[in-house]
């Protein structure tokens, strides 16, 4: 972790996960340009240092967000160092082919895309309570419209496939953002579809599917364009965001299944059970 810069008297403090490349990096650069005090959270220390230099971010924090004990530890560091967080942008995520498990024995998509932002959000609520206009922005995707979420097997131990796992995780992001808004009415919680963005997404997978996705990248929007909705929600005062789903800087309707309050509650309880089993 770098030594945090002294907080200026104006401008909110925004923490961005997955902030060393792609949408996260573009979001950080634009929010710094708009006068915010930006904190970067990522896994690779060299990439974090480069991103801080490129964007002018105030500080960096390091953790492998797929490892939930590391998530809890870095959240504790952030609370101790920062005191107040105004905006949390849960941007980190990925797709994994073939199926992988973390060192904690959890399927990677479920761990990184769902449990990690769920835990980080929970652990940073005390810091967000110190803000006059606290917001949590979670990067989801319109891929949630194609999802089926089986809470009897959220890690897809039976019949794993990368895209269904990813789609289910994005549905989970929308559901949990809405359930958070219901539970914590003092903060704004929104899920965001950034669009199909040219970020090298899926490049970590050495499969035919990954090579085909590289062709999709040719027609995709830039990371700067993909960051626009997150930037808008993080920097527009008093925007009514809570419980909403956004695309192209406007609220829009998610898939009907994403509005299932009963499913959202069961998902929340499932996530809590996972954390309890890990002693978190």
UniProtKB/TrEMBL annotation:
UniProt cross-references to CDD domains, sorted A to Z: retinol-DH_like_SDR_c_like
UniProt-listed SUPFAM superfamilies: NAD(P)-binding Rossmann-fold domains
Highest taxon of source: Bacteria
InterPro entries, alphabetized: NAD(P)-bd_dom_sf, SDR_fam
Matching Pfam families: adh_short
Keywords, ordered alphabetically: Oxidoreductase
GO MF entry, a single one: oxidoreductase activity
Stated name of the protein: SDR family oxidoreductase
Organism of this sequence: Deinococcus radiophilus
């Amino acid at each position: 972790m770098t030594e945090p810069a002294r907080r200026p008297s104006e401008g909110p403090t925004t923490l961005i996960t997955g902030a060393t490349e792609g949408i996260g990096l573009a979001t950080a650069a634009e929010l710094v340009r708009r006068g915010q005090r930006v904190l970067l959270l990522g896994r690779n220390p060299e990439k974090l240092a480069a991103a801080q230099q490129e964007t002018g971010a105030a500080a960096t924090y390091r953790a492998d967000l797929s490892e939930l004990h590391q998530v809890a530890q870095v959240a504790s560091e952030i609370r101790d160092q920062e005191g107040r967080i105004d905006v949390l942008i849960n941007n980190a995520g990925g797709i994994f082919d073939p199926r992988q498990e973390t060192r904690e024995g959890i399927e990677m998509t479920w761990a990184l895309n769902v449990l990690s932002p769920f835990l980080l959000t929970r652990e940073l609520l005390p810091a967000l309570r110190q803000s006059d206009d606290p917001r949590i922005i979670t990067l989801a995707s319109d891929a949630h419209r194609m999802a089926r979420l089986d809470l009897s097997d959220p890690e897809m131990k039976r019949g794993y496939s990368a895209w269904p796992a990813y789609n289910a995780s994005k549905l989970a992001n929308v559901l949990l953002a809405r359930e958070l808004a219901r539970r914590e009415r003092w903060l704004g919680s929104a899920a965001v579809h950034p669009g199909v963005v040219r970020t090298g997404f899926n490049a970590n997978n050495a499969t035919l599917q990954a090579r085909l996705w590289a062709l999709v990248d040719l027609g995709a929007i830039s990371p700067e364009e993909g960051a626009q909705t997150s930037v808008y929600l993080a920097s527009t005062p008093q925007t009514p965001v809570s419980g909403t789903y956004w695309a192209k800087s406007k609220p829009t309707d998610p898939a009907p299944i994403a509005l299932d309050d009963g499913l959202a509650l069961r998902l929340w309880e499932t996530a809590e059970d996972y954390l309890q089993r890990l002693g978190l």
